[in-house]
Amino acid sequence: MSFVMLLAILVSVADAQWEDAHATFYGDISGKETMQGACGYGDLFQQGYGLETAALSTALFNNGQTCGACFELTCTNSQWCKQNTGAIRITATNFCPPNYSPPVDIHWCNPPNKHFDLSMKMFTSIAEYKSGIVPVKFRRVKCQKRGGVRFEVKGNPHFIMVLVYNVGGAGDVNSVAIKGHKSNWISMQRNWGQNWDTGVGLVGQRLSFTVKTSDGRSLTFYDVASESWGFGQTFEAKSNFY
């Protein structure tokens, strides 16, 4: 990627326009109910996301393609907004499903509403607990992650599914390819959330990955896993998107 193209991407992220939405919260202050979820992540503490997360409404979730993206939110135009708190940053890790039971107009995650269902910790960072729901301004921002991109390998000798997480930059992955040291590059398909799969057996081969994010950037991570890799293991690349 040329320097000019990279600069254009960075500028576009930095200049993302603020949009209107609403925010609620789910779970208690421990955040236990926010673990797992529709993006395929597991223990959000172990995976580095913590409680700085949100479930997105249909209009934002985009059938799981927005999983891993990062947003900045600020409470606005409400008596329940906490004063001088600034903005919070969250990663999309779950889906807030629509509810078409009447009365429909009170179900904030229904299309076309743009809505963030935050962890209690993040909601109460910007608004009073008793408010329940507040208007917010939001925009996409670059994800800042520690360490390299991580790959959790699951499946069996005939089927490989890889959870791609801890992705910096745009954060949301829109294509993944895998390669054994004895194979050609193999395009993986999105199974659900940020889980990607292939029916090609690669047991006993060193694994490399090419990951492309929604901003068009692509990185290749060579020999992330050695020949002795096993299902259920997680491997961390030496680099990340920034």
Automatic annotation (TrEMBL):
Causes loosening and extension of plant cell walls by disrupting non-covalent bonding between cellulose microfibrils and matrix glucans. No enzymatic activity has been found. SMART domains: DPBB_1. Residues 1-16 form the signal peptide. One of its GO terms (cellular component) is membrane. It is a peripheral membrane protein. It comes from the Eukaryota. The keyword Transport does not apply. Residues 158-237 form the Expansin-like CBD domain. Residues 36-148 form the Expansin-like EG45 domain. This is Expansin. Gene3D superfamilies: Expansin, cellulose-binding-like domain, RlpA-like domain. Keywords: Cell wall, Cell wall biogenesis/degradation, Membrane, Secreted, Signal.
